[in-house]
Amino acid sequence: MSGHHHHDNDEMHEHDRGLSYDLPVLARRRMIRLLAGASLVPLVGCSAEDSDSAAAASESSSSAGSSSTGSSSTGSSTECATIPNETAGPYPGDGSNGVNVLKESGVVRSDITKSFGDSAGGTAEGIPLTVTLTVVDAASGCGTPKKGAAVYLWHCDRDGNYSLYSESVTEENYLRGVQETDDKGQVTFTSIFPACYTGRWPHIHFEVYGSLEDATAATSITNTSQLAFPKDVCDTVYATDGYSQSVTNLGQLSLETDNIFSDGYDQQLATMKGSVDAGYTATLTVPV
After folding, report:
1. Nearest Cα to 136, choosing from 178, 177, 181?
2. Residues 243-287: tens digit of each pLDDT
3. Are 135 and 145 in contact (CB under 8 A)?
4. Which of 5, 134, 190, 281 has the most neighbouring CB atoms within 10 Å?
């Protein structure tokens, strides 16, 4: 990063750099999709849906509806395709781009709202969010939970900043954590609803590892992907105090134009429950 940060625009530039960093991955992903073949038809089918309700319902309806038109032999390929691989972006904190939080004692935790260890010790403010990911085995028809795998999850704060990287929070490591999947293949993180920053639809990053040992050694990632939030929930959350910049940024984006989700997001759109007062729960099944 340059040494002359003196106004907010620099923050924007960091995120813009993140956007350009993300772009080359698209070509590779399209290739993977083409090779996958069967998953291509359902994914393309859902990106034509524009309305919020259609997008929110796409997890249940489009996977059921489009599998019959798909070219798959199983008839349920959409539901059981491996989670799409996405870029980890420029702020992974996993050692692949500078700092490595995974080897620090304390990173294995469910509540990721506070910084831990020798960090500045700050707390991320925002609307409460609980994230539950269920990791399942794609090869077995998605019916078998992946017990004993591990998930590293991270996202930006209410201001759109990433701990460890963004200028104002380089000393923080909040909104990052690792957990081992339980008997149901699940991990649950307590967090806050992330901002929408310039050029990207609101999202959460995650990496799946074969074991907790692999995760804390920051080695052998099996899957890297991103969770997307439905527009109606984003609109509701961003109308609350502290998220005003997100309203502006979200207004310039859609799931269909986002450089990561534009080629299909039905497997990555979280199912949401809750309210601003009670907090929200986001759930997603992650076939690996």
Report:
1. 181
2. 999 999 999 999 999 999 999 999 999 999 999 999 999 999 999
3. yes
4. 134
Q: How far is CA 80 from the centre of its chain?
A: 19
Sign, CA dihedral 211-214-217-220, equals negative
250 HSE (CA, 13 A, CB side): 23
Contact yes or no for 269/55 (Cβ under 8 A) = yes
Nearest to 37 by CA among 72, 1, 88: 72
Q: What is the arrangement of strands in the sheet containing 203-209, beginning at the earlier edge strand?
A: 176-180, 150-154, 203-209, 221-228
Rounded CA gap, 81 and 287, in Å?
7
Q: How far apart are CA 161 and CA 145, in angstroms?
A: 33
DSSP strand E in 121-215: where? 128-137, 144-145, 150-154, 176-180, 186-192, 203-209
Give the strand pairing for 221-228 and 271-275: unpaired
User: How far apart are the C-alpha atoms of 140 and 252, rounded to whole Å?
Assistant: 40
Tokens of 138: 């794609």
Using pLDDT thresholds of 50, 70 and 90, give the confidence band for residue 79.
low
The burial of 43, by beta-carbon neighbours within 10 Å (0-12 exposed, 13-18 middle, 19 or more buried), is given as buried
Residues whose CB falls within 8 Å of the CB of residue 51, separated by 6 or more in sequence, listed in order: none
Report the distance separating Cα 65 and Cα 48, nearest Å.
14
How many Cβ atoms from other residues are within 10 Å of residue 58's Cβ?
23
Using DSSP, state whether 137 is helix, strand or coil.
strand
Q: List, in order, residues 6 or more apart from 213 with CB less than 8 Å away.
A: none
Indicate whether 59 pLDDT > 70.
Answer: no
